[in-house]
Amino acid sequence: MSSELGQSITEHADGAVGPHLPPLSEVLDQCRGRLYRRLSELISLEQLCRQAGDWVSTRTEALIDVDDYRLPVVSICIGEPTKARCCLLLTGGIHGVERIGTQVLLAWLESVIERCRWDSHWRQQFQEDVAIVALPIVNPGGMLKDWRSNPRHVDLNRHAPINAEDKVPFLVGGQRLWRKLPWHRGHFEQEVEAEFLALQNVIDRYSSPQRPMLAVDLHSGFGFRDHLWIPYAYRREPIEDIGSYMALKLLWERNFPHHNYAFGPQSMHYLSHGDMWDYFHRRGTQQGHTLLPLTLEMGSWLWVKKHPRQLFSFAGLFNPTVPHRHARVLRSHLVLLDFLLAAIRNPDSWIVSGERDRHMQQIAQTLWYRNLP
Ligand SMILES: [Zn+2]
């Protein structure tokens, strides 16, 4: 392994699910110089792992061939997710053009790792209480090309084998008309996309009936404000775990009453086919696992409104381009992510059952679902 940049990178020891591929540094040795301009996020990710030393372990989950590059889908762990009591799973860059999600995630991981160096209480939680598993760039080929889809023109978040039960917006909800149009679903039944499979392997490796997992998937591009979306995308009726989601929302609002997120079901905005988190949640439930996904959808229309010239750059529709705004976005989600880490570390505070679950379900029903037929 090359260590010319300083410290070496620790690899995951646990290998149960997924292929054995060369480590991150070895993969990047082939193309590091060329990536600085086109995919600096991957370089930042490698640097973060080097600087973290033993705090972080990494694994190459898949290799994606695009143009003359071979790009890794990398997972990183803080703590030991096969032993921890609970797990926070974080994903970014599922849509390659939404770089800001990856950048926010890397900024938070950096602060988590930095705090491990001096705060013994903070560090202790990763001994056995909780583990963080992050895939900051799920779709490196799409990000290299500044595409929403992966290099094979498949929208990874329309790819899962689930059809919406109601009308979806034309094209945007997922389509199989033409591969080169955005939102193409691909053909899961014939060939599962490598990036999708990589994420599924990570979930399978670290899921267990005894280990609740909260997943946060970072996106950008929808609306004027930041949304925290509760599944499902395929139907309007509430998800089975809506009581726990409601309890989580109330816990968040009691602690941060002045927050500015719109926290509610995605189905209130639009439905779509093939949502990966619908699929992973339902699959987890069938296996007796608790996997509760959330999507953080950072509203980019405000960035565009304040800086209309962004309209002329495709990436500008999904990412803040003015430096002070970019910095503001990087810092504005740190509190939320800290909170979600604390929340999954204390699952009994909000993962509800029995009478409390019924009570929370009623509140959710009144707040979000009273107009359902
Ligand atoms: Zn997205």
Overall description:
The protein is 38% helix and 16% strand. It has a 9-stranded mixed beta sheet with strand order 1-2-3-5-4-6-9-7-8, sandwiched between helices. A hairpin with a 2-residue loop joins strand 2 (56-66) and strand 3. 49% of the residues are buried. Helix 3 (40-52) packs parallel to helix 4 (99-118), helix 4 crosses helix 11 (323-332) and helix 8 packs across helix 13. The termini are far apart. The protein has 13 helices and 9 strands. The protein has a single domain (10-368), classed as Aminopeptidase, CATH 3.40.630.10. The chain is of the alpha/beta class. The structure holds zinc ion. Zinc ion binds at residues 95, 98, 219, 221.
State the CATH superfamily name: Zn peptidases
In this entry the ligands are: zinc ion
- Gyration radius (Cα, Å) is 20 Å
Summarize model confidence as the mean pLDDT: 92
Largest sheet: 9 strands, mixed
Shape: globular
Give a short overview:
This protein is of the alpha/beta class.
Write the layout of secondary structure elements.
Blueprint: E1 10-11, H1 24-29, H2 32-38, H3 40-52, E2 56-66, E3 69-78, E4 86-92, H4 99-118, H5 120-128, E5 130-135, H6 140-145, H7 194-206, E6 213-220, E7 227-230, H8 242-255, E8 262-265, H9 276-286, E9 291-298, H10 301-306, H11 323-332, H12 334-345, H13 354-368
Helix pairs in contact: 2-3, 3-4, 4-11, 8-13
The chain binds zinc ion.
GO molecular function: metallocarboxypeptidase activity; zinc ion binding
InterPro entries: Peptidase_M14
Pfam family, one: Peptidase_M14
